[in-house]
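The protein record filed here.
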Amino acid sequence: MQRKIKFFLKWGCLALLAAVILIGLAAVAADRFIPSLARRSLPSSASDVQEYYSGLGPDYIRCLKAKLPESDVAIYAKNLDLTTRFDPVEHAKSASIINMGFDDTPTWWNPPSASASSYFNYTPGKEFVQVLRYSEGYVYYVSTAW
């Protein structure tokens, strides 16, 4: 009986460690080679796509900027399941969350403030927000949880 325990302690722990490492490598490979939902949802007319992701687990930020004709912004919003348009009066209490800034983003991440042409998904009290903005030929999409 003690032999079996020693065998398990020796090889079982190694097998568990190997499994954890393989799962981690698979997650990294998937993140690297499978495009994000934000990128997959872009209409075919999109170009000059830049994407940034930071975080691990439930706390993350994903920023995407892409050149897109204004006529395709509504299609992109629909593909992302964003249906609520930002109204500065109606959504005044949520404006600070919707226009939240981030410290460690790349220099290309320069979204305008939310306007009536912006789409968003935020429920007060929830720690998750998605915002899609459009300005001067570019869409700016951010998804974050904290």
The longest strand covers residues 47-56. The chain has four helices and six strands. The radius of gyration is 21 Å. Residues 65 and 145 are 19 Å apart (CA to CA).
